[in-house]
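U., I forgot to send this yesterday:
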Amino acid sequence: MTSTIAAWLAVPRSPAERSSEVDLLGAALLGGGLLALLLAISQTSVWIDHPGFAVALLAAAPYCSARG
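Result:
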């Protein structure tokens, strides 16, 4: 609670005229890259049954994350 109050007082407010837009494409690519990485890591049966698919997931993860 104390750290929240300290942050509220210490962090400067952004100018009112400045608008921030969310990069939806970047967010989708980053999410897809993280999903591919976590799927390849957590699903060990994929490595045994479909090693080519697992390697493709691992290859796609950094590419998608870097594009985001």
